[in-house]
Design goal:
single chain; eight-stranded parallel beta barrel; 16 strands; disordered N terminus
């Protein structure tokens, strides 16, 4: 949580008694839920300091509305099997709120109750249809996130505290329930329905899996293996200039899929040439799932891991602290060493980041050190201090041009390559947005990512100028028989200080493998670059830089 909690009660701060006038309260009481959600997201994006107060109040709500027991009637028997009821979805929503507020143990207790009712309701003649498969995958994904929430709940400034006896019982009960489910089913689709959750729980026992069969992983290639034609040298590592990003694993909001579906998509990506994967220690079970997949592949030596070591809170940097974190990252990805470990440090006022970077770079299990969301000043500081940095992961697109102001020259000077995300501007740099009105920010299909990037578009130059940019990109795309998205990515890759673009991969849910590969079939010529630049000359990129700050500043406001 963003605030400390003792004995289940949010900590008390300075008394606040701001008045909410009657008309404002009338608006709040009568807004549709989707509109209220949109407004809250807008407020949190506008003023990030409100986030801690939001979490505080959300935690208070969860505590004061805590039910005496998990509701029953979560599943209804239908002709061929089981279907989740409204009560299930309400319970699942509460579980996800508990996890978001770092009440992980409460979330696990509830999930255990859900699984026990599922086991009692599931008959031998029940048919596993698409709806039930989706429900099982969503529960599995929730177990993964609940474990992540527990791990955050256990964090202290000097590491992780030991679980109490009652907390250990909570974990033990869920583990026992999962074992019972697995032993009751012979059909692999059911037996391994909660394989991801099993594996995350095993982290509390030092890794491994509680399943008798650890993996149900596809190892057969479904197509002739492709090799991406453009590569980049990052220290000792040569990788394709496109990474697959696994941030989908960090939240059920991106969708959930079974382990089998995820592994099948991993294999499809590898066969297509996507052999470099970006993940993080806080992306749910991304590291573990990737590690188990890779270690089972015949071409595992040609599949590369770029994960992160992120320090968000106050810690004491010691060799032991770094070693513990690096060792855990390597264990999660089932490797003796990590090809690229990217370092994020939240608080620049705490200058231990230089010491931490040195310890990471010198660690025997780290092949190459990269940075994540560091600004130019601090990146220069580390390089001057003698830290060997090969990359910096930052946001960069035709709308977010901040790297071109200061970061570019520093990258050239120190031979640091950028790994860029957000290069499609949250999906706005796509054919679907050409010749359409500006979006309604309160539409239920608008994601937090859409809102973030739309506000950036407004500062950059507005929707009319953005349409002009899309028109230019569309014309260039037609010239090369490709899309606006692909053209936008090609523009990023044509910068000499860019090592690779990172494209989100929703493994087991959706993929755009073939379209993404089109970026390597052409390069922009002088006429193309001039056409794009003509639009950029009209934009307010300097205003974006002034409003947001240098690379990564938006995460520290």
């Amino acid at each position: 949580m963003a605030v400390s909690i003792a004995n289940g009660i949010p900590s008390k701060g300075k008394a606040k008694a701001a008045h909410v006038n009657m008309m404002t309260d009338t608006v709040i009481a009568n807004l549709p839920p989707d509109a209220l959600r949109g407004i809250v997201r807008g407020l949190l994006g506008f003023e990030q300091n409100l986030t801690s107060h939001f979490h505080d109040l959300a935690a208070k709500y969860l505590l004061t509305t805590k039910p005496t027991s998990t509701p029953s009637g979560l599943f209804a028997k239908i002709t061929t099997g089981l279907a989740p009821t409204d009560s299930f979805f309400e319970t699942q929503s509460r579980v996800r709120c508990l996890m978001g507020c770092e009440f992980g143990f409460d979330g696990i207790r509830t999930l255990t109750d859900v699984l026990q009712e599922l086991s009692l309701s599931f008959g031998k003649d029940s048919v596993v249809d698409d709806q039930l498969t989706s429900t099982l995958a969503s529960i599995d994904g929730d177990i993964v996130q609940a474990v992540t929430s527990v791990q955050k709940e256990l964090l202290t400034g000097s590491g992780s505290r030991v679980m109490t006896a009652s907390e250990q019982e909570v974990i033990k009960s869920l583990r026992s329930t999962l074992r019972s489910w697995s032993s009751s089913h012979q059909d692999p689709e059911l037996k391994f329905a909660f394989a991801r959750g099993f594996t995350r729980l095993a982290e509390f026992e030092g890794g491994g899996s509680v399943l008798s069969q650890k993996r149900q992983i596809a190892t057969q290639s479904s197509r002739t293996r492709n090799h991406i034609s453009e590569t980049v040298q990052l220290g000792s590592l040569e990788v394709p200039r496109m990474f697959a990003g696994l941030w989908q694993f960090s939240s059920p909001a991106w969708g959930t899929a079974s382990r089998a579906q995820i592994n099948a998509d991993f294999r499809k990506h590898v066969d297509a040439g996507f052999t470099a994967y970006d993940m993080a220690d806080h992306y749910g079970d991304a590291e573990v799932t990737f590690g188990q997949f890779r270690s089972a592949q015949p071409d595992s030596s040609e599949i590369y891991c770029a994960t992160k070591l992120c320090v968000f809170g106050s810690v004491e940097v010691t060799p032991e602290f770094i070693d513990s974190n690096v060792t855990q990252r390597a264990a999660n990805v089932e490797a003796d060493s990590i090809e690229l470990l990217q370092f994020h440090w939240q608080d620049y006022d705490d200058h231990q980041y230089v010491q931490a970077a040195k310890l990471i770079a010198d660690h025997a299990k780290v092949q190459n050190l990269g940075l994540c969301n560091f600004d130019t000043q601090r990146m220069d500081e580390m390089v001057v201090a003698g830290v060997k940095v090969v990359s910096n992961q930052v946001q960069f697109s035709l709308i977010d041009l901040r790297p071109t102001f200061k970061m570019a020259d520093s990258c050239r000077k120190h031979n640091v390559k950028l790994l860029t995300y957000g290069s499609l501007c949250g999906g706005f740099l796509a054919d679907k947005w050409l010749n359409v009105p500006a979006p309604n920010l309160f539409d239920k299909n608008m994601t937090p990512s859409h809102r973030k990037y739309f506000e950036m578009i407004e500062v950059w130059g507005g929707w009319i100028l953005f349409q002009e940019l899309l028109s230019v990109l569309s014309a260039i795309g037609k010239k090369y028989n490709t899309s606006i998205s692909t053209t936008a990515m090609r523009w990023i890759l044509d910068h000499d200080y860019v090592g690779a673009v990172i494209i989100g991969a929703r493994m087991g849910i959706s993929e755009h493998v073939d379209e993404n590969l089109e970026v390597f079939k052409f390069k922009l010529d002088g006429e193309d670059q001039a056409g794009i630049q003509k639009v950029l000359d009209k934009c307010k990129a300097k205003d974006v830089f002034a409003e947001m700050g240098d690379c990564g500043a938006e995460y520290r406001q």
